[in-house]
Amino acid sequence: MDKKIKKYLKLNIEAQLKNFDIGGAIVIAGKPGIGKTATLKMLAKELDLHFLHISIPELTPEELSGIPEFSKAPELKQYNLNDDTNSSLATIWSASQLIYRANTLANSSNKKGVLLTIDDLHKINMATAPYLYSLLGERKLGEFLLDDRVAIVGAMNDSEEAGFDGLESPIKDRIGILKVTFDFDYWYKLIGIKLNPFVSSFLKTRPELIIEEESTEIEQFATPRSWTFLSKEIEYIFSVSQEEFFFDNVFMIASQKISIETSREFAKHTLYIKSLDIKNIVEQRKVFNAKTLKVLDQIIYSFLINYIDSLDDAKYLVKLLKKNIAVENFVGSLIVEAYNRYQRLVANKSIQNSQGLEIFVDHILGNTSEDIHLSEEESGKLLSVVTKSFNLF
After folding, report:
1. Together in a domain, 243 and 390
2. How many CB atoms sit inside 10 A of residue 159's CB?
3. Are 355 and 372 in contact (CB under 8 A)?
4. Which residues are within 8 A (CB) of 31 and not within 5 positions of it... i.e. 6 or more apart?
């Protein structure tokens, strides 16, 4: 999903929160796994909104209608066909669960509002459709309105393989449908570069394989989502020191998420990386010239950050950076890998096991460490490369 789509969605959300009548919510439609929901989640964070996500197929009518409660209604006694002596009862409906959750979040003080994402609209069923007419058209369910600080955006897949067989006209009349396509460069800078190095380097050189033809057969097909899941699985396997298991079984592992042919190509790629023995390069303190490497290898060699743990490792890394400060592809990839690994270690509360990496991330960019030092010119060049290539800092 490219920047102009994201900007338009942002404008639409802001207009809803300002109570402009813009003719209904936007529904973004595109292939499975291209980041529709992830983009909306990022937008919610940027706009300081709670992110409330619901999937239409998971909802029961009761979650949209509310629950009936009973109240005495003596004025209805004359209409009671049972002719009993008790007063007649009337039904009063409670607020739906959806309205309650959205409005409760809207009234909390720690955010500016709520982004309500109604996902999987392509799988809408007859039981829930009438409620959506009211929600999308009048921003209410039953007798309860959505808070003004709640913006609505929908998402759906648009292919028959994903289950799309059309939308009812009353739904279409209450929404705007925005067709979105996948922008690899935008996705790679935002998400792809943060994936496991085996996955990110493979996709960098084979971007045409990130999305494969959809299929409902037993063989899998690749999507940005499936590559992300594969990356997470690899991260776990390495975190429990099962590297050799991964290399011995990479085809089997990959084929659970992507097609057989692409799994073969991915397996070749990972085994090639293994053959480079990057860990040994760090241990031997080899200060190589990255300019002599192929573009793919410049990216792959940035994986050496995964073996930077001691202070001596960090000092070696600085020498390597100074040697290759002008090789933007290598330096940019190296810094991004350092940032990603640092974030993972912090999240897992294990950063203390990698003093060298901690010093590098905490001090190199700020140029404050006495143990490892870059000149002002080198620090400026380093920051320029990262900002230009990956927009992380």
Report:
1. no
2. 13
3. no
4. 157, 158, 159, 162, 182, 211, 214, 223
Partner residues linked to 176 by β-bridges: 26
Query: In 3-state terms, the chain is what percent helix, strand and coil (to 5)?
Result: 55, 10, 30
DSSP for 100-118? HHHHHHHT-TTSSEEEEEE
Residue that finishes a domain, picked among 142, 160, 182: 182
Tokens of 351: 């950063």
Tens-place pLDDT, residues 110-140: 899 999 998 888 777 777 788 888 888 888 8
User: How far apart are alpha carbons 177 and 31 in whole angstroms?
Assistant: 14
Tokens for 293, please give them.
């490497």
pLDDT digits (tens, 9 = 90+) for 321-351: 888 888 888 888 888 788 778 877 777 777 7
Query: What are the E-state strand segments in 235-366?
Result: none
**Which residues are 150's β-sheet partners?**
114
Residues 240 and 297 in one domain: no
Longest dimension (CA), the chain: 97
Residue in the structure block whose two tokens are 């940019």: 332
- Residue 238: which of 253, 223, 259, 258 has the closest Cα? 253
389 torsion bin: left (phi>0), alpha (psi -120 to 50), beta (else): alpha
Q: Which of 156, 182, 208 is the last residue of a domain?
A: 182
DSSP secondary structure letters along 84-104: -SSPPEEEEEPPPHHHHHHHH
**Is residue 37 located within the same domain as residue 160?**
yes
Helix (H), strand (E) at residue 69: strand 68-72
Question: Measured between alpha carbons, how far is 273 from 300 in angstroms, rounded to an integer?
Answer: 7
